[in-house]
Design brief:
Chain lengths: 289, 254
């Protein structure tokens, strides 16, 4: 097991950095859940859509994944806006369940599109730097793990700024706290939801690029990231961007330390057990209201 | 949209009716298949303070919510400045200058006092004026200025009501609809709030408020309507209504 404390440096650093990736995927999920009380079960698949789009840009246009985000993010913003405005807003007016069912449908459609276009084979975003790693204090850490955390910090700060300092952001927060009062303030809730979903899709796309750089992915990979996003959001608490980042890191740590202590097969198990434990001690999550 | 003060030396200028601000014309409102408002008509003239008085579940909140666009009447129409507004969306109604301070305040609990006020100025017409309006609100309610960075849920009931009214003022309203402002508040706090309403009216904002307390409402309003089981049963100037025996019947006969 552990011979010395320095054995832990590797899983700890890996856990923190990986946590960044989980946080980016979870941020979009948290936004939709927090604002519209909608569990977007297609969120993981939208992230993988980002991965596949980056893959297409890489193989077809020889475009670096981060550069291809300049194309992918606008595409995902538009797709997200249209889906919420013309599909999910109408579903939400019908019942609480209708939007979830639609998201299940979207998930299936996406997975099958991936399979048709790119086959069931695993893919990855291989770039000049995707296999590089750094050696710090005797610990070897892949470069992409650092990128995961840095990007997570940037996305989290940008979202935080949006929610706190812009009228749209305040409207998103207001609509999540009291729908009817938001309407009475002159907020067009449906429009606000559409913008929120668009932003969430952009976050998913960024998450997808990170996923593609960090892991191999396949048409059905979305499901695992959906469940991770769920766990991270529960851990960090709804409505807090910082909470989601911390939640991601805690989740990542639980996974890597669990894997280190109990074997690779147990890593996700340990992470989810920890989610349950936190849920039992503090149901609203670490930073939850 | 032009309007002018219609209250001169305590008398209502009746000839203002052609420029009538808000006119509710014979509306029926249903919740599903349950009718809650029957053939309801009322008007509010520019610069007036009008009360809609009734007990619980008499339909008074329903009327305000219909004016605000949260509900649609199935018959009749609602006019504001001569324009039909009954099929507009709530955010469009706010943009026209009709702002509701809802029952139970409904402030945003996990936003700061300042953010609550700022979100009040969300509609496009109000945004450029937010600096001036914020200063205005702090003059009416200095306590809000002192607590501006506190979370709204930490405020007392009276302070939350001030915040709700302040939030309404941020929307640059031409007319404010207040739903049961007095609920759960001490008389001393109420005195302050009614004083503020009078100040708001002095600045040219028309007021329609909904209340259960007949006596207090008739003291503060120029005119009033009495609503019972979804119908207007009595209306007139406050002075005239104070004389009516019917008032007591309408109020106690729930």
């Amino acid at each position: 097991m552990i011979e010395s404390i320095s054995d832990l440096y590797s899983p700890i650093s890996a856990g923190i950095l990986l946590g960044g990736l989980y946080a980016v995927v979870a941020l979009g999920f948290s936004l939709i859940f927090g604002v519209m009380k909608l569990i977007n079960v297609a969120h993981g698949d939208f992230a993988i859509l980002g991965s596949y789009l980056a893959f297409a840009a890489l193989t077809g246009l020889d475009l670096d994944p981060f550069l291809s985000l300049f194309i992918i993010i606008p595409i995902m913003l538009v797709i997200g806006f249209l889906i919420q405005k013309y599909l999910l807003n109408r579903a939400m007016a019908v019942s609480m369940d209708a939007p979830v069912i639609i998201c299940i449908g979207i998930s299936l459609i996406l997975q099958n599109i991936f399979q048709i276009i790119w086959s069931p084979l695993s893919r990855g975003l291989t770039t000049s730097y995707s296999l590089e790693s750094y050696n710090i204090g005797g610990v070897t850490i892949p470069l992409v793990y650092f990128l995961d955390l840095i990007v997570a910090l940037i996305v989290m700060l940008m979202l935080r700024y949006l929610l706190r300092r812009t009228y749209l952001g305040k409207a998103i927060v207001a609509a999540s706290q009291d729908r009817r009062a938001a309407l009475l303030m002159g907020i067009n809730n449906n429009q606000v939801y559409a913008y929120a979903f668009a932003i969430a899709m952009a976050c998913a796309a960024i998450g997808g690029v990170l996923i593609g750089l960090t892991f191999p992915f396949a048409p059905t990979s979305g499901m695992s990231f959906l469940i991770i996003a769920f766990g991270v959001v529960i851990l960090g608490g709804l409505g807090s961007m910082v909470g989601t980042l911390i939640g991601g890191i805690v989740f990542g740590l639980a996974q890597t330390l669990g894997g280190f202590l109990f074997g690779i097969a147990a890593q996700m198990f340990v992470a989810y057990v920890m989610v349950l434990v936190i849920l039992g001690i503090r149901p609203q999550g670490i930073f939850g209201r | 949209m032009k309007y002018s003060m219609s209250k001169v030396n305590g008398e209502i200028n009746e000839s203002m009716s052609e420029g009538t601000f808000l006119k509710v014309n014979h509306i029926d409102v249903f919740y599903g298949s349950l009718q809650v408002l029957w053939d309801m008509s009322l008007n509010v003239n520019p610069g007036e303070i009008v009360a809609l008085i009734g007990s619980n579940s008499s339909g008074k909140s329903t009327l305000l919510n219909t004016i605000s666009g949260l509900l649609r009447p199935s018959n009749g129409n609602i006019q504001f400045g001569g324009k039909n507004i009954e099929s507009l969306n709530p955010f469009q109604i706010v943009a026209l200058g009709i702002c509701q301070v809802p029952e139970g305040r409904r402030i945003f609990p996990d936003m700061t006092v300042l953010d609550n006020l700022l979100i009040g100025s969300y509609n496009r017409g109000a945004r450029p004026k937010r600096g001036r309006n914020l200063k205005n609100v702090y003059e009416h309610f200095p306590i809000l200025g002192m607590r501006k960075n506190q979370m709204a849920h930490t405020l007392s009931g009276g302070e939350q009501q001030m915040l709700a009214i302040g939030r309404g003022l941020m929307a640059e309203p031409k007319i404010m609809l207040l739903d049961e402002m007095s609920l759960g508040l001490a008389p001393i706090v109420l005195d302050e709030l009614y004083k503020t309403l009078r100040e708001i009216r002095q600045k040219g904002i028309t007021i329609l408020f909904v209340e259960q307390n007949v006596k207090r409402s008739l003291k503060e309003a120029d005119r009033a309507y009495i609503i019972k089981s979804g119908r207007i049963v009595l209306s007139g100037t406050a002075a005239k209504l104070r004389e009516e025996d019917e008032i007591k019947k309408a109020y106690f006969g729930v």
